[in-house]
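Researcher: Next sequence.
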Amino acid sequence: MAFENPGRQEIKGILESAGNIAIVGLSDKTDRTSYMIAQALQMRGYRIIPVNPMVTEDILGEKTYASLKDIPEPVDIVNVFRRSEFTPEVAQEAVEIGAKVLWLQLGVFSEEANRIASENGLKVIMDRCIKVEDAVTSPARGR
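Model: Next structure:
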């Protein structure tokens, strides 16, 4: 059976109930897409948690962690800015930390990551931009 993302109403519910969003692959460079999207999410009221083993400084005022396993608090959504071939490992870590959703950004798709996450109870969204989905499902919301 081919993968299908949740419908817009379900995505809206996921975003409305999200507390912490760990952003794997978040760059500290302000001209990178991951940075711009994280900043936009933060401005919309979401709590972002940067995950990047190559960065030791805070990003957007938030402590940066080397891996999902290093985050000392619950994570609702794991939003991934990594190439598709690296996502199965991220999916496994998302399972291990008890995340609720694995969200692979636009252009990122992995059947293996989907299998790992969905078989362990995570909702999976792939090849979709979280910022776009937030704007489309809740355009007037100012968290």
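Model: The helical segments are 8-17, 33-43, 87-97, 111-119, 130-137. The longest strand covers residues 20-24.
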